[in-house]
């Protein structure tokens, strides 16, 4: 029997699995129009079965969010770039950030900084790594 998450993925065809306790991740999801209805949002900390499934596929969620579009899976900088391509910015700063991240090269170069900021934020909040 398929889980509710598997059923919703089948229906919408698009899922973003991210760290719901990370302020940077939550901001990215909300600020750039990546909301329910356009894709299924999955907080990895609330769904350890998803963390285990993705780790078996080689995607560590502490190393980056995951975007699944049908049978395609994007992780880390690739997921951010694909989400940026699909996103909608509110205001010039948000649109500028989406433009910046929509480039493969710029997303790849920027992603290590985004990961470092995420780690610092989580450490400051006393939040540990995502565990399956």
Order of helices and strands: HEHEHEEHHH
Oligomeric form of this entry? Answer: single chain
Globular, elongated, flat, extended or rod-shaped: what is the shape?
Answer: globular
Q: Count the DSSP helices.
A: 6
Low-confidence stretches: 1-10
* Strand order within the widest beta sheet: 2-1-3-4
Rg, nearest Å: 14 Å
Q: Compute the separation of the termini in Å.
A: 21 Å
The overall average pLDDT, rounded, is 85
Which strand-content bin applies to the residues? 5-15%
Protein name: DUF393 domain-containing protein
GO molecular function: protein-disulfide reductase activity
Pfam family, one: DCC1-like
Protein traits:
single chain; 132 residues; alpha+beta; 4-stranded mixed beta sheet; 6 helices; 4 strands; disordered N terminus
Can you describe what's shown?
The N terminus is likely disordered. The relative contact order is 0.17. With 132 residues, the chain is an alpha+beta fold. It is built from six helices and four strands, in the order H-E-H-E-H-E-E-H-H-H. Helix 4 crosses helix 5 and helix 4 crosses helix 6. The protein has a four-stranded mixed β-sheet, with helices on both faces.
């Amino acid at each position: 029997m398929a889980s509710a998450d598997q059923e919703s993925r089948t229906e919408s065809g698009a899922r973003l699995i991210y760290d719901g306790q990370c302020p940077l991740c939550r901001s990215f999801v909300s600020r750039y129009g990546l909301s329910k209805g356009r894709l299924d949002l999955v907080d990895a900390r609330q769904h350890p079965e998803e963390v285990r499934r993705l780790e078996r596929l080689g995607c560590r969620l502490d190393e980056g969010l995951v975007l699944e579009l049908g049978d395609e899976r994007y992780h880390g900088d690739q997921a951010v770039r694909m989400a940026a391509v699909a996103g909608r910015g509110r205001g010039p700063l948000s649109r500028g950030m989406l433009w910046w991240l929509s480039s493969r090269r710029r997303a790849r170069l920027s992603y290590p900084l985004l990961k470092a900021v995420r780690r610092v934020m989580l450490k400051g909040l006393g939040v540990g790594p995502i565990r399956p």
